[in-house]
Amino acid sequence: MIGDTANANETAMGVGPLEVQLAVEVDSASVCPLRERDADEIRQSLSRSAVDETCQVVVEGDGDADYERTTVGETCPCSVLADHDCIPEIESVEDGRLLYSVVVPSREELRAVVSDLRGVGASVSLERIRADSADDGSSVDGVALTAKQREVLTLAIEAGYYEQPRNASLSDLAGELGVTPSAVSQRLNAIERKLVRTRARGINSQ
139-204 in CATH: which number? Predict the structure, then answer.
């Protein structure tokens, strides 16, 4: 199924980097600090040393932020993704399912990612796949965005957040969206990272 979907999209949109959305349900024995949470706002970093691999996450909700630091286990999907040529980003967690936005260079790499995730006991489903350059109304200047990212970007532009001087603050945007200022900052930063990565690939290909 994954192979068929990838082939169809690449035939229609051209071969190149793909942005996919993967829903990953981790093993119940996993020490993943996110598995038992339902959260839309997550910041995460993964670090490796000679001794172990550590996952650090900040989860926001209801105006509060929780910080957790755990040692990565063999079944942790983040560790599997870190071993591949891809750019993963956690979008949300719901009912034990981690929703990732992942940019991969090819459908072959996507197959390898999915195979390795399933190899550690994770249940994986492909929620969305499109070429990074596709413009189907859910992208901005060829950069694929989630619904929440499109919402905050539209609001930020309309409110004058990117004007000089700024006509709106993070707090102003947060008030309109009903989230925390740090949540708005995280979404805008994620958008900006995607834009920079896309521009960097364009420069490197010239």
Answer: 1.10.10.10
